[in-house]
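Consider a typical record:
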Amino acid sequence: MPNDPIPAATLILIRDRAAGPPDLLVVERAKAMAFAGGAMVFPGGRIDPGDRAAAAGDDDRAARIAAIRETIEEAGVAVGIVPPPSPALLATIRRRLHDGEPFAAILADAGLTLDLDALVPFARWLPAHAHMRIFDTLFFLARAPDDAAPTVDETETVRLAWTGARALLDDADAGRATIIYPTRRNLERLARFASHADAVADAAANPVRTITPFVEERDGVPHLCIPADCGYPVTGEPMSAAMRG
């Protein structure tokens, strides 16, 4: 299997709550998917050639465009689109994306533009394990639109939920949900925040560095670890428990 990293982008949508920690939008990938089948993840996917063309070759802009596009495709939520599309227009955009039409052309037809500053860089993960599909993934934060009404695409995603970070970690620990290693580490980081603003402040305090997990013995037990200075409260877990994709 080719092991060249696949550029990808993911969007962490945050919905503040009046009481309690904020909700995050997560989707369950279809079990038949080659990567992370059956796992709960944040919406996202590959950065495609159309994203790069629309970004004029700028990798950061291409990743932001891909995160916006993939969130529409997978969850039916539009972030960073000006003006915000009506539900009917959003449904049309989503249908045309599923039909394979270029995102840039769809936006141009509708007289819409992108506000890429609506996305805040949060993390970059690049695993290095062999014999598995590897994604070089940029994670972005964004405030969820007030009128967001997500729905699954019934192809790549089969279920979605608004959930607190700690609640999803608890579900995973109880066997009610499956999460892969990068998702777990990001949920642990996100569980510390009381609001979207808190998450953005943390992102500003911890500039994005590429995180490549590595194996290290801790108390005689092999652990899958990440660097200790990237803003994550938990930096490793036993290899026997780690789900890598």
